[in-house]
Amino acid sequence: MRLGQWKTNGILREKIDRNAKYIWFHASSLGEFEQGRPLIEKIKAEHPEYKILLTFFSPSGYEVRKNYGGADVVCYLPFDTPYRVKKFLDLSKPVMAIFIKYEFWDNYLSELKRRNIPVYIVSAIFRKEQLFFKWYGGMYRKVLSYFTHIFVQDDASRELLSKYGVTNVSVFGDTRFDRVQDVYKNTKQVPMVDLFVNNNRSDNQLTMVAGSSWQQDEEVYLNYFNDHPELKLIIAPHEIHKDHLMHIESMLKRPSIRLSEATEKDIKGKSCLIVDSFGLLSSIYRYGDLAYIGGGFGAGIHNVLEAAVYGMPVIFGPKYQKFKEARDLLQVGGAFSITDEKTFESKMEELSTYRDLLEAAGAAAGDFVKSNIGATNRIIASIPL
Description:
single chain, Glycos_transf_N_sf, cell membrane, membrane
């Protein structure tokens, strides 16, 4: 990452068009980029008079999206020191800056304000536990005053900010809903997965897609899978290195195959398909009857909306509290949280026995996503372009 940051000024000198107007988008990592992507692509399509500069702080974003065609220039964001900030802005000369969700860089924000460059944060969410709202948080709260406008996901964030005198706030929702809807509309067929799911399909078959699962997750659901022949399982692990794949295979007692090794002949008769490549999960969810979302026994769950958009219920572990969309899905009945292997088994028995409950939960999940689409259009209508 540090080497990449050193290259930023050279990239800007080479690629920035001095006669163009740039809107600068900054995403910390890949997840925030996906959240901001609908805005980038809509502005690119509807306002060709602007070019897009996209920066990342994390290698997980830059390395994956450094060739992203929706941006005219992609680079790392230099560290937030006064000299580097001024150099970056001198070279890029943005006419507007849009930060995504959780980016509060004091020197960047204060310098943008000093230069009278409008700066926005989108799909932001605030919680009382954050530094801004501590008794010693005055210095941190000052950063919020540098934003021209703050677009938040929910009323709770607006009310919290209002208590501390921050009122340039609008509740416009989360652009991730627009992103997953875009992916849903353009979903790819994966013929080998289709063959796996539908070959010799029985009337009582259920297919579960385990997305972004970790070892702790696999220890929860694999024993149940091993004992239930009506269940077909697609595992898309968060990590696909050799040791993890071999560990999964060592736990399986039913026939499995890796997607990279699957052929029309070999996939027949298999009960578990292991997706050992990245980039397919959002399309593979379409083949499931329900989804298990990994991460809930670690730092926190992964993207639940990628599955819910297909109208299927989602199951995840206990660490979901920081994710508004997960809390909301639980409230509407489109998701279920489990705490261990026993509670997972109980929920699976319920959903597999009462298929009307499974269908109702899936419908609730799909309707929840549809009802939250539109943040991108609302934000763009409120930003002077």
